Amino acid sequence: VPFSLVQAGGSRIVRGVIDAIVRHPDGSILVLAIAPGTPAPLDEETLSLYMEAARQMFPGADVNGRTLYCN
Q: Phi and psi at residue 24, in whole multiples of 5°?
């Protein structure tokens, strides 16, 4: 899911692609990031950015996230 995100302060625009978004029947959102190999520090930052973008896409929704690692 492509996104453009204006970060706090409005001085930086970030563009990217969220790997997957699941919208549950209760309106909550699950953001999925897919990463190769084993967990790395950058993975948390990426998921956090994806979740921030999802919160802007779905205002008021409960947004959670998970990183899936593929080998």
A: -80, 160
